[in-house]
Every structure is written in C-alpha cells, then in structure tokens.
Amino acid sequence: MTSGSTAGATAPTTVVPVGGVRWLSDDEREAWRRLQLMNFQLTARLNRELATASGLSYPDYLVLVTLTERPDGQMRAFELGQELGWEKSRLSHHVGRMARRDLVQRESCPTDQRGSYVVVTDRGRHAIESAAPGHVEGVRRHFVDLVTPAELATISAVAGTVLDRLAATCTEASPGCDDELTDEPVSLR
C-alpha cells in the first residue's frame, strides 16, 4: 500500500455481487484499509505521546475531556458511555481504574437508585489542563496541519454521515449500540 494523494486515482470500478456478497472494489478496499490504518496508527501515536508527557492514557483523556466540557464536570455514566461509544463494561472498568487514581469519582444519582454520576475530581481537572496543550499540538502535527481546510471539511462531513447512519440504525440487538448502555454496575462472576 502506498501513501500520499489520491489525485490520480482511477475511476471507481463497478462492484458485481459474487455469491450474494457485494465485495469491495480495489478503490473501495484501498480507501477502507487506509482509513483503518490511519486511525490505528494515529491513535497509537497520540496515546504514546500523551502517556509519555502526562501519564494519562488516551482513554483517560477522552473521559476527562468529555467531563470537563460540562459546566458541572459530571455526567450520568450511561451518557458518558454513549458519548464515548463504549460498552458499559468497558466504561465501568475504566472509570474504576481512574477513580483509584483519583481522576474521577462515582456519585449516586439521587433520582435513580440504580444510576450513578461520573464526576471529575480536582486532580482530574489538573491532569487534563496539563495534558491538553501537548495533546492538541500532537493532533495538529499528526493530522490537522497535514490536510487542507477543504479536506478537513470533507473528512468531517464523511464522519458525520457515517456516525449519523450508525446512530439511526442502532437497535437493541446490535452489538455496541447506545441502547445497551446503562449506568448499572457490571457484575463479574
């Protein structure tokens, strides 16, 4: 696989179903693989840089930035899970690890005995405030500054289209859907 501009890309090929499967054309497969590889490598690079500079993991950062964007610094656990696209077990385990490091705490929900809030602590606020400038610089260096404003707008539009479609087709039977997220504690038997 080569990297670089797709300015000289070939015209899209017609996808002929084989055995009822609409296999990806060469261009579609290349675009999909590049998107996956970019996402994996970019996330890994930002995670390494963040951990080295601040001691926070990328998931820690995502939780803290999401909470600190709220004026009260708290969210219902199920809302945080929906925002991050995490399953309830992943959220529960990660929030537990962060709570042991005093970055967040769980608080009972006064209107729902089964529910809880995830609340950023003073230590968590300090951690995100310290980490954010370096992380944003990494996002710029490894992504934003490498694309034109028009390319950035296209990436944003494409991501919005895909995310909207995923949300619209989410059902209780679909793994990873928002409907599966609750803020009930997960039992590990």
How is the secondary structure organized here?
Elements (H helix, E strand, L loop, with lengths): L25 H29 L3 H11 L5 E3 H8 L3 H13 L3 E6 L2 E9 L1 H21 L6 H20 L21
Antiparallel strand pairs: 1-3, 2-3
Helix pairs in contact: 1-5, 2-5
Task: Kindly describe this structure.
This protein has helices spanning 26-54, 58-68, 77-84, 88-100, 122-142, 149-168, and strands at 74-76, 104-109, 112-120. It is mostly helical and 189 residues long. The chain has a single domain, classed as Orthogonal Bundle (Arc Repressor Mutant, subunit A). A 3-stranded antiparallel beta sheet has the order 1-3-2. A hairpin with a 2-residue loop joins strand 2 (104-109) and strand 3. Helix 1 (26-54) packs across helix 5 (122-142). The longest helix is centred in the N-terminal third of the chain and has 29 residues, at 26-54. It is globular and about 55 Å long. The termini are far apart.
Number of strands: 3
Fraction of residues in helices? Answer: 40-55%
Oligomer: single chain
Total DSSP helices: 6
From the alpha-carbon coordinates, what is the Rg to the nearest angstrom? Answer: 20 Å
CATH class: Mainly Alpha
* Form type: globular
How would you spell out the order of helices and strands? HHEHHEEHH
Low-confidence stretches: 1-8, 178-189
The CATH topology is Arc Repressor Mutant, subunit A
Q: Main sheet, how many strands, which sense, barrel? A: 3 strands, antiparallel
Short characterization:
The chain has 189 residues and is mostly helical. The chain contains six helices and three strands.
